[in-house]
Amino acid sequence: xxxxxxxxxxxxxxxxxxxxxxxxxxxxxxxxxxxxxxxxxxxxxxxxxxxxxxxxxxxxxxxxxxxxxxxxxxxxxxxxxxxxxxxxxxxxxxxxxxxxxxxxxxxxxxxxxxxxxxxxxxxxxxxxxxxxxxxxxxxxxxxxxxxxxxxxxxxxxxxxxxxxxxxxxxxxxxxxxxxxxxxxxxxxxxxxxxxxxxxxxxxxxxxxxxxxxxxxxxxxxxxxxxxxxxxxxxxxxxxxxxxxxxxxxxxxxxxxxxxxxxxxxxxxxxxxxxxxxxxxxxxxxxxxxxxxxxxxxxxxxxxxxxxxxxxxxxxxxxxxxxxxxxxxxxxxxxxxxxxxxxxxxxxxxxxxxxxxxxxxxxxxxxxxxxxxxxxxxxxxxxxxxxxxxxxxxxxxxxxxxxxxxxxxxxxxxxxxxxxxxxxxxxxxxxxxxxxxxxxxxxxxxxxxxxxxxxxxxxxxxxxxxxxxxxxxxxxxxxxxxxxxxxxxxxxxxxxxxxxxxxxxxxxxxxxxxxxxxxxxxxxxxxxxxxxxxxxxxxxxxxxxxxxxxxxxxxxxxxxxxxxxxxxxxxxxxxxxxxxxxxxxxxxxxxxxxxxxxxxxxxx
Length: 603
Known about the structure:
single chain, alpha/beta, Rossmann fold, 4 domains, seven-stranded parallel beta sheet, 27 helices, about 45% helix, hydrolase activity, nucleotide-binding, DNA helicase activity
């Protein structure tokens, strides 16, 4: 490892050693080679391009998809003493002129730019007059048409290959299955030998998935574990997003809405409040979050089914970027599955694309319905593996299985004999022999399947039907108010009668139950918690004075280290991980004073 890279790591970022494959990647790029980097969120991808950009002659050009993400990273770099800036369409003319003067004078270490800005108005030509240390394309899965966050402007970035053929190119992402990886490598002309795959595991995240029962009550129960913490709640529709945020505010949470239909100024104001706050809940559609750099998101909840396993991995990956414990919850029901299927079938995509999307949805449903370790299923999708993790709901409370062959036959027969047009609740009532006016009106109290399912309760029957939908044995007609019908695979099942093992739904439980405690405070020894809180208050005070997010001052992880080490001087504070030279100079005295004052009161 070049000495210069280690020196930068310590002086700028305050760390003594690289993690995982960082050292190999950084050495590779400093040596002038291209690199494709697949590394889980929170694994330290940004250092893989920032340090080579600082170490090599010239300015690093970083292509990033969102203005908010660029602003966030630039603010963090400047706090660390790095000369960084962002070029975007929102810059006033005077600031734009001043920025171009700095670029042309070679006064910057890193320049962030969105692909749309880069590709318009002669920007590439002007950059061609400067020396570039490297070109890094962040969130590189956006250029793949098979990726879940496809951005057409990213497809045009192959112009960089032709315009800067001798400049090292980097493509970085946390989310890319095999087809997506192959497309990125091909499009940017990066060879397989220059690919670094660091794995997908996020061991600090606890995964949990549950059937929708009473979604608001389930979400409220989940959030009780996260009082005073920031998190994201994902919804599928704009309306649901607004309604859920309003309901959470009524429950006492500082909840904000974010979706593409909002006024731009309001949307940006809400994002800034989330970035700058320490206990804000963002209720959002998938329009929010790509590349979010906030490290102290302690939870992510989906109250609707996401679009794919890639989307689920990317969205849950916004939790716990600082490596401290975080928690996720996904709720789903038959209507979610039907809606996602409808999105696929009604799209204008070619048949090959629709087949791929159906396979992706099946993989997500496989995760939702698995009786095994969720982390194993999730990682296997990306070609990775792990031992049973002990940090997901199915590891904490393994679900029971039962031979569901007869139950499935009964359910399918009941759907058939009622005319394949009634919804889940009606089918369950017929199976249980419920004597209702509606059932009598249709004469379904006289059919052979009336009351043949009394060996199971309504909750288990709902779970059975949900699993039959997930297995594509049953279709749901959303346009027909959720009516169930037998899918072709269901007819094959009735004919062939193969054995079928199904899951018993776990008992309703409070999220206060088993599993890793997810609050950052939970990893702080009780003896250090009051000091940790005092340090957080000082950090927030400084951040508000500068109008920056608190975490660009110091991450929670660094404050935990400070509370444990209790340095008595700036020289001692320099040994704490995460304290670089610039931050020590700016904030050392203030934080040492907090520690001294606390120690004086405690003695």
